């Protein structure tokens, strides 16, 4: 490297470091898009849906994920999305049974995925639960493929699929690219380490849920309270999570799933997502 090249490159680096975070492109800028669960939007009460969508855009979100039960008038949701520019990127479904109606609604809304929970009936054996959920998802996969809607199984606190190796094997036994994982970064901190889940799941992770976890808070005030900490203020090693996501070339949606609140609160959530995801 000659002196001129060295000085030029040094100036470029110094200039980038001097930029405020919002003005500098982060590692996942343009690769991860921010969404949130509709249930977080407490300020929407009494507002026309399109106005609430516009406010979510102003807060810093590009998408929203409603539960199927939230959408009582699909045409209103489609119109609000079109007029505001806020994308309904997916829906939150429920169990692995009777998925066709949810697939159809997700398609109508313009989404490309439906979050699914693999239910654990504790009166049945683990093997029976495994086989039932696997076979139900396998049966739904052809319709999901026909409608181009991915069925994404979330790692939840059902005491089922609580190891990343379990989740990976479960998805692989279904054997369809249309049944993959909605990876909740915070959920399995109760039993494991977020970046280890990211590593094992690899490209099976098609969408992300973003929340935080504090082990100390959970131990002192109750397990559910472990989530009651701002994104970035807990125990998740976000740089390590990003490193694993970078290895698989992750690109797509990340949805906040934290306590809801007003527009200022949601703006803060979006900014925290920017920081931990390096957007």
Question: What would you say this structure looks like, in words?
Answer:
Mean pLDDT is 91; it is low at 1-22. By secondary structure, the chain is of the alpha/beta class. The chain has one domain: Divalent-metal-dependent TIM barrel enzymes (TIM Barrel, Alpha-Beta Barrel), CATH 3.20.20. The radius of gyration is 20 Å and the shape is globular. It contains ten helices and nine strands. A seven-stranded parallel β-sheet has the order 1-9-8-7-6-5-4.
Instruction: Provide the structure class.
Output: alpha/beta
Proportion of β residues?
5-15%
Would you give the CATH topology? TIM Barrel
Fraction of helical residues: 40-55%
The CATH architecture would be: Alpha-Beta Barrel
Count every beta strand, where a strand is a DSSP E run of 2 or more residues: 9
Mean pLDDT level = 91
**Order of strands across the biggest sheet?**
1-9-8-7-6-5-4
Oligomer: single chain
CATH superfamily, called what? Divalent-metal-dependent TIM barrel enzymes
Number of structural units classed as domains: 1
- Number of separate helices: 10
Shape by Cα distribution: globular
Order of helices and strands: HEHEHEEHEHEHEHEHHEH
Output the CATH class name: Alpha Beta
Largest β sheet strand count, sense and barrel closure: 7 strands, parallel
């Amino acid at each position: 490297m000659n002196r001129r090249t060295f000085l030029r490159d040094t100036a470029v680096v110094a200039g980038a470091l001097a930029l405020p975070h919002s003005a500098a492109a982060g590692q996942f800028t343009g690769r991860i898009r921010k969404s949130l669960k509709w249930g977080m939007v407490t300020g929407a009460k009494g507002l026309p849906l399109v106005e609430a969508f516009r406010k979510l855009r102003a807060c810093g979100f590009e998408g929203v994920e409603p539960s199927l039960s939230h959408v009582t008038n699909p045409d209103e949701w489609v119109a609000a999305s079109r007029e505001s520019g806020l994308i309904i990127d997916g829906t939150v479904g429920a169990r692995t049974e009777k998925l066709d109606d949810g697939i159809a609604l997700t398609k109508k809304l313009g989404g490309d995925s439906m979050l699914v929970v693999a239910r654990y009936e504790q009166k049945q054996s683990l093997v029976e639960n495994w086989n039932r959920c696997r076979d139900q998802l396998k049966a739904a996969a052809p319709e999901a493929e026909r409608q181009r809607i991915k069925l994404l199984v979330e790692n939840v606190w059902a005491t089922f699929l609580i190891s990343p190796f379990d989740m990976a094997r479960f998805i692989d036994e279904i054997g369809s690219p249309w049944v993959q994982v909605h990876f909740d970064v915070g959920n399995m901190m109760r039993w494991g380490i977020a970046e280890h889940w990211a590593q094992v799941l690899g490209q099976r992770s098609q969408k992300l849920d973003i929340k935080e976890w504090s082990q100390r808070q959970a131990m002192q005030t109750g397990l559910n309270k472990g989530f009651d900490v701002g994104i970035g203020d807990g125990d998740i090693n976000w740089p390590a999570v990003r490193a694993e996501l970078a290895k698989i070339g992750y690109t797509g949606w990340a949805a906040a799933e934290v306590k809801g609140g007003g527009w200022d609160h949601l703006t803060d959530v979006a900014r925290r997502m920017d920081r931990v995801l390096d957007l």
